[in-house]
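Can't attach files on this board, so I'm pasting raw text. These are the components:
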Amino acid sequence: MKLKIKMRRMLLKHKLMIISSIIILGMIGLALFASFLAPNDPNFVDIAQKLQGPSSQFPLGTDHLGRCILSRLIFGTQTSLGTAILVMGLMMFISIPLGIFAGFIGGKVDYLFMRICDTLMAFPSFLLSLALVGILGPGLFNLILAMVLVQWVYYARVIRGMVLGVKEQNFIVAAKVCGTPKFIIIMKHILPAIISQVVVLVFMDIGGVILAISSLSFLGLGIQPPEAEWGMMINDSKPFFRNYPSLMLYPGIMIFIVVIAFNLFGEALKDALDIKRVGGGVE
Amino acid sequence: MFIKQSKILRNFLVLLVILASFITGCSNKATEQDNASVKDQSKVVTFSMTGDIGDLNPHTYFPNEFFSQAMVYESLVYYGKGGEIQPWLAESWDISKDGKEYVFHLRKDVEFSDDSKFNAAIVKKNFDTILDNRKQHEWVELINQIKNTEALDEYTFKLTLNNSYYPTLQELTYIRPLRFVGEAAFPDSQDTFKDGLKSQIGTGPWVLSEYKKNEFAVFTRNEKYWGTKPKVDKVVVKVITDGESRVLAFEKNELDFIFGNGVISQDSFQFLKDSGKYETKLSEPTATRTLLFNTNKEATKDHKVRLALNYAFNKQAVIDNIFYGMEKKADTLFPPVLEYTKIDINPYDYDVARAEQLLDEAGWKKVEGKPFREKDGKELQLEFLFNSTDNIQKSIAEFVQGDYRKLGIDIKLTSQETNTFWTTAFQGNYDILFTSTWAVPFDPHSYLASITTDSENGGPDYTALLGLPEKKEIDEKIKKVLLTTDEKERKMLYTDILSTLHDRAVYLPISYQSNVAVYHKNISGLDFLPQEAEVPLTTIDVE
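---
Top answer:
Structure tokens for the assembled complex are below.
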């Protein structure tokens, strides 16, 4: 209870935290209500309206196929944020149980687990996902699969480290001595002890995930047209960047704002929760 | 406090040292380069292509590029302006009355780049190794027709055919496979198709002098060349896959010119043209940009669906907005300016109402509250395959996707780079394929011949058309027309074949494409050659 009060006070103290959380909430709002907020159908092609400047019908102008840029940016929030959250969720779904399992059991299981991690981590993660998408073929599903398959090890490893730190503490030892079943120890004692660190980890890295998704889409490997996605919008605007730099600027700014907001939020959260060191995986 | 300051100071000093070394390093390099350019007065032109030149073997196909094969190897006769057959390695030729025997009198002053003689024996040897792999070259009907090759004397070569075959000379002008490598280039097995070449020895104006796979190739002038010698000493061909990077490299003076079709987007071309800083040129229409429907797939098997797709395509919008009016609208598979291709047909003009009606008739009905049409509970989704290395196909594909969407057709875009693109295309794993005809001298007869054969070096059209009930009939007619000696009958048959193809609506011709050339003002002689794939490197000059 005391901790909670302390936390709340510290959170409020943090201006950055408030600003970043407003931005994040705003983005989530955009994503949820995209179909109400967007002035036009983001996929409606009208080539005669190609590369128009801002007007009342198209507040930010149109792209090379005559689609409304503002609408595409708003719908892009949906794809970018949605995919990032899905990827992060799936990664946690795999790495939390595995990390805890390896850390808590220890011994040979842990040894084997660590070697698997070492093998996968020997490659740069982005390159490995790139290769995987290359093999599986481009597409949203394959993109998610490739990212999750490659990056869960980082989180599993970090979580294992957290468990190792908690495992030897007295309250766990006491529980063990009392003969509490292992499952109960994990659920009641270990998980609550590390969950705040995990949350910080998630927030600090989700910006990286968004960036990775946009990068892959920029390369044409992720989300496929006509779906709106920021990375892809940047790629689409490449041929026009000298005459129409705004085409590239808008989605770039969106990515920048979201990633910065998540990073600041993660930082602030880390300070607020007084967590010394959290290592992330996504560069 | 003091410690902290000194740390900052130290860091600053380190940074300064690093920066200083960078600056001096760069300037040294620059002076070296200056020296080099003063010493070396040779003329060099640099351009770029989308792919690697491959192993530079005239008897094989992908990944060999047409343009590089044409630089090093030559043919017996040359395809001149307007389709005129000109003497090349053969000075003259006699054709027997029945059209089955061709006697070529070879030039006596030709040498390969390794000083070996070009004579009838080496011509026969090249022909024979090509004929050993007939199946691979099936799309060239001439190769199927050759009965016998003979070296009559040192400079006379005789070709005997099974039947009189009217495009014989035209097919001898092809860049591949009927071109000649020197004796020393043959592998031990003598089979150039299976085992490749020992070295790239040809008679052409250029010799490959330096090569790094997927990076660059340097060709130097063949000083012993028998014909008009190139004006520049060296040609550097860089591999740049991306069109925008190519434009940037050109603007930074790293490239002297841009040449080809699909190498840069129409928007970039327009941008370079409007800037006024460079010279731009557009060739006469060469080939037809066309979509090909796969008649084996559930939806596109239906004639009505294919018709609907034809009617629903707004060609004029594409031409006005994507091509900036630079290309001409195409209604027939081949430009009507080619021989035998002027046919009288009713074009499928843009008509959305008609397209919707046809889709309804075909059973693909609109469903309330759903964006796409359905038939028996299945959505109308078509897979559109295009080549990602081409800088024009993507924008058209995206436009088609957006426009067909309004009709309730879901287009799934699949882009693949050249190699995988062709593999997928030949396997027939698509509903709609972005392709083009082959331009002269291949159009129309060789293109049509490729429809009749499943040769892996032919076209994907063979597989795509298999679902047509008339396929066999069409094939027989194409085979017949190639061997027809009567001009009138030939014309009739061509009209018949092309009208059937139009009537079956298996193709959706979009526009007649052109080669583009963009070059700096100090470059001259960049004139388009009759064969689309040839780059005019012998006439090019740099000041």
